[in-house]
Automatic annotation (TrEMBL):
It comes from Pseudothioclava arenosa. GO terms for molecular function: ATP binding; glutamate-tRNA ligase activity; tRNA binding; zinc ion binding. This is Glutamate--tRNA ligase. GO terms for cellular component: cytosol. Its EC number is 6.1.1.17. Its main location: cytoplasm. ATP binds at K242.
Length: 466
């Protein structure tokens, strides 16, 4: 056996990829990748009625958007049902499990009697120690022969040692009477067969761990390292739900958050490294460990998310930012870019990405790139286009006809026209903004001129000049 670390993310394809699931995937990815290990994906599709191919596709797309690469092909839990059944029968042969012929009516009658007498309603099968010679020719389930005495202790990297009294755990069903395995058995068999060394998942699985450990023990298998992480709550401290806003990962892409910012924010949600808030993937991979995960639920904070995303947009290289903006445009069902718009956007990212917290904000700043002549002029901007200003624009346009299209020359030219009219440059900038973008608030007029190019700049100025 190698000492290589193997983690896994095992979502159920019954709906969108929840933001909490995305963080679990991220923690598993960081832990494995930061230690040269493997990160595997398993689709827990045993619930045939609720599992859909669309949900599986959404999970794969979400993980891909978040930038979490996994090793090998995704594993289908349902496709491995024969292997799960084989292990249940092996436990039977080892005496670690038994056939239970009790019917649903008998189990319910047992529980009703237990309730009436005020004792535990955990079902105790009369077949646990029955002589196989007395077994009827009838349908049966295979139950784990769980220890009745003592306790099962989960040594958890986040929660510490968690103790479950064995008399509080029943003999769980491993194989149903129709031969299909239960989720509890399938998870353990899959994790063992996949060589999973570290099970990092939400703390809502903590009680499952107690029962799953008993399966490991029954089979004589090595128990993986467990790390049960607290769930994510909304800003009000209640369990995250749709009333708090977006809970599905694909919604965050469609809202225009960059993947790098999302990784950074999700990583910080429940895990910390000193006071570091903003960090790169390389730093996260180097720093991430299980000891830094807190025991309290993390609270989703959209302001903090936007702040971190803004820093990542500003820090991103233009060539990586542009394809991500285009993917956002597709995800949010906006009209795709024309070749010219794409060219200008690529050229203008240097002046658009500062102080934009999301891609919609960046595209809003890039309005001048998408605007087409004749420009619609906002009311506030139109006020700057009085007859005097239009006359000055006319003069500026003729001066720019033969100017070298560099920032220094453009500034020199515009400042020269402003001085000739004995006005501050601010008085000239307002009508220029209106003419170039149709708005009062825009990026620097010189940035816009450089991005639009000489021909388009002159055409827009000419349109508004008197």
């Amino acid at each position: 056996m190698s000492d290589q670390i193997v983690t896994r993310f095992a979502p159920s394809p019954t709906g969108y990829l929840h933001i909490g699931g995305a963080r679990t995937a991220l923690f598993n990815w960081l832990y494995a990748r930061g230690r040269g290990g493997k990160f595997l994906l398993r689709i827990e599709d045993t619930d045939r009625e609720r599992s859909t191919p669309e949900a599986t596709a959404a999970i794969l797309q979400g993980i891909q958007w978040l930038g979490l690469d996994f090793d090998g092909e995704p594993i289908s839990q349902f496709a491995r049902r024969d292997r799960h059944a084989e292990v249940a029968r092996e436990m039977l042969a080892r005496g670690a499990a038994y056939k239970c012929f009790s019917t649903q009516e008998e189990i319910e009658a047992f529980r009703e009697a237990a309730r009436a007498e005020g004792r535990s309603t955990l079902f105790q099968s009369p077949w646990r120690d029955a002589d196989p010679a007395t077994h009827p020719d009838a349908p049966y389930v295979i139950r784990l022969k769980a220890p009745r005495e003592g306790a099962t202790v989960i040594q958890d990297e986040v929660q510490g040692d968690v103790t479950f009294r064995n008399d509080q755990l029943d003999d769980m069903v491993c194989l149903r009477s129709d031969g299909t395995p239960t989720y509890m058995l399938a998870v353990v068999v899959d994790d063992f067969d996949m060589g999973v060394t570290h099970v990092i998942r939400g703390d809502d699985h903590l009680t499952n761990a107690a029962r799953q450990v008993q399966v490991y023990n029954a089979m004589g298998w090595k128990i993986p390292v467990f790390a049960h992480i607290p769930l994510i709550h909304g800003p009000d401290g209640k369990k995250l739900s749709k009333r708090h806003g977006a809970v599905g990962l694909e919604q965050y892409q469609a809202m225009g958050y960059p993947a790098a910012g999302m990784r950074n924010y999700l990583c910080r949600l429940g895990w910390s490294h000193g006071d570091d808030e903003f960090f790169t993937d390389a730093q996260a991979l180097e720093w991430f460990d299980l000891k830094g995960i807190g025991r309290s639920p993390a609270r989703l904070d959209f302001k903090k998310l936007e702040n971190i995303c803004g820093q990542h947009i500003a820090a991103s290289a233009d060539e990586t930012l542009l394809p991500e903006i285009e993917a956002f445009i597709t995800a949010s069902e906006r009209p795709s870019l024309t070749e010219l718009q794409r060219e200008r956007l690529a050229k203008g990212l240097y002046c658009l990405k500062e102080r934009a917290k999301t891609f919609p904000e960046l595209l809003e700043k890039a309005h001048f790139i998408f605007a087409e002549r004749p420009l619609e002029i906002e009311e506030k901007a139109a006020k700057a286009l009085d007859p005097v200003s239009r006359g000055i624009l006319n003069e500026l346009t003729s001066q720019l006809q033969n100017a070298s299209w560099t920032r220094d020359k453009l500034e020199q030219c515009a400042n020269g026209v402003a001085e000739a009219h004995e006005i501050g440059f601010g008085k000239l900038a307002a009508p220029m903004r209106a003419a170039l973008a149709g708005r009062a608030a825009t990026p620097s007029v010189f940035d816009m001129m450089l991005v639009l190019g000489q021909e388009e700049t002159l055409a827009r100025l000419q349109e508004q000049a008197a």
